[in-house]
């Protein structure tokens, strides 16, 4: 061992033999060719989520097989995957960068396991129509939100609600939706699953926003209807909340985005706008008794406080 250490210390690192050995085992760091082609990507790509950057990297390298590992969500294993929500939004996002001949494979939960689903992107000629449709929907949302003076977290939560409702056969009750939006965790499977669906919708919008930014950076000098639509969409999605404001952790303190009555009225408007019947919550007798006991307890506490203050 001592001989090996001595030989290492005495090694001439400038010798041709050592330099030849060094070249064999030192890989040159080469930037992806697309970063050389599109200089503006250097700054735009810095803000991408890791999973989205993986897709962007493969798509810009013209890969024909593009895997997408969707984030793991806390879900009810007996329900369909929450990632079934906003599939059309993600397909549009993928299509902005993937070639029409490529195959996109999403990996998401199915029952107790993970299952891949192949997605065929839009062709170049078909791409503008869905982009214009979502741009119009977002524009309508922002106009409505401005008239209501809504903050970004609330307005995008309500847009996510519209995406969720569009995919469900049975609409969730207003009280449940209200609790999810305000992060008022109630430890039930319906709450957990609806929360996961909201998160899938919000993250799909985030994917669209980031891939729109990449498309615009790559196609700076192209003048087309698609560019105009995507520029509008990028501007309208500028205030999409960060992940920390989109997702909440079960058990954390509530985030009160709106008081009960205001939120109830807003949710009802979303239901009506997409033609969904407003659902009411079915309360079991057991829950009614518990609520009555809680109301009585609060009443006694108020009376005691009033008596002690006299």
Automatic annotation (TrEMBL):
UniProt-annotated stretches for the region Disordered: 282-310
Pfam families: XPG_I_2
InterPro entries assigned: Asteroid_dom
Protein known as: Asteroid domain-containing protein
Superkingdom of source: Eukaryota
Record organism: Phaeosphaeria nodorum (strain SN15 / ATCC MYA-4574 / FGSC 10173)
Ranges for domain Asteroid: 7-119
């Amino acid at each position: 061992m001592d001989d090996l250490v001595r030989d290492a210390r005495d090694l001439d690192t400038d010798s041709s033999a050592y330099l030849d050995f060094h070249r064999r085992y030192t890989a040159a760091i080469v930037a992806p060719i697309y970063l050389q082609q599109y200089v503006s990507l250097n700054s735009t790509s810095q803000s991408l989520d890791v999973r989205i950057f993986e897709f962007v990297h493969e798509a810009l390298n013209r890969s024909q097989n593009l895997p997408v590992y969707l984030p793991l969500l806390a879900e009810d294993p007996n329900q369909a995957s929450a990632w079934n929500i906003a599939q059309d939004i993600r397909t549009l996002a993928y299509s902005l960068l993937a070639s029409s001949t490529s195959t996109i494979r999403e990996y998401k939960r199915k029952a107790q396991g993970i299952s891949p689903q192949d997605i065929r992107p839009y062709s170049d000629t078909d791409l503008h129509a869905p982009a214009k449709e979502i741009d119009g929907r977002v524009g309508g949302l922002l106009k409505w939100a401005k008239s209501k003076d809504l903050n970004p977290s609330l307005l995008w939560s309500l847009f996510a609600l519209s995406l969720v409702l569009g995919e469900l056969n049975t609409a969730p009750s207003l009280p449940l939706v209200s609790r999810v939006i305000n992060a008022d965790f109630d430890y039930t499977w319906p709450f957990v699953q609806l929360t996961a669906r909201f998160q899938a919708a919000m993250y799909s919008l985030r994917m669209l926003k980031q891939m729109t930014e990449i498309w615009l950076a790559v196609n700076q000098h192209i003048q087309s209807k698609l560019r105009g639509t995507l520029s509008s969409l990028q501007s309208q999605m500028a205030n999409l909340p960060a992940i920390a404001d989109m997702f909440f952790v079960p058990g954390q303190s509530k985030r009160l985005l709106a008081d009960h009555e205001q939120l109830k009225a807003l949710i009802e408007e979303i239901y009506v706008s997409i033609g969904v019947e407003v659902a009411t919550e079915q309360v079991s007798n057991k829950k009614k008794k518990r609520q009555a006991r809680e109301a009585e307890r609060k009443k006694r506490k108020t009376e005691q406080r009033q008596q002690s203050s006299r």
